[in-house]
Design a protein that fits this description.
Layout lengths: L5 E6 L7 H4 L3 H13 L7 E6 L11 E4 L5 E4 L7 H16 L13 H4 L1 E5 L13 H5 L1
Parallel strand pairs: 1-2
Antiparallel strand pairs: 1-3, 3-4, 4-5
Bound molecules: FE2/S2 (inorganic) cluster (FES).
The site of FE2/S2 (inorganic) cluster has 11 residues, from loops.
Amino acid sequence: MSDERAVLSICITCRDGRETETGTRGGSRLAEVIHAEIGGLAAAGVACRGVKCMSHCKRPCIVSVSQNDKFTYVFGDLDPHKPAHAQALIELVERYNKAPEGFLQRMDRPEFLRANILGRFPPIRSVSPLVLRLDPIVAE
Ligand code: FES
């Protein structure tokens, strides 16, 4: 995968409770929906990958957005049978690609992706005012 693209990591082993009726895991179905929806955005700098468990199994389905030198976001409770959820992710990535360090305030994220955020992690070399070096404090 190119370092220039935002990466959507989709847990393909999440269960959404519809496994018996569909014969496939919820995460796998979500990945199919997102991949299909995001196909048109591939040229705009988005890549998708499947991950076998992202350790948030109690909040299925799980997706993260990341890129080198940008914040990483993790979201839960995505429903593969609600197209609006996949659309919200696509909208989020469009905004993420334009934002310095990919940082998005709560109100900058699509409404569905405000309450169900599970984590926001700065890049290692972040220059964000949100990130404070503690080394001198620890060394004292
Ligand atoms: S199976 Fe999806 S987070 Fe564990």
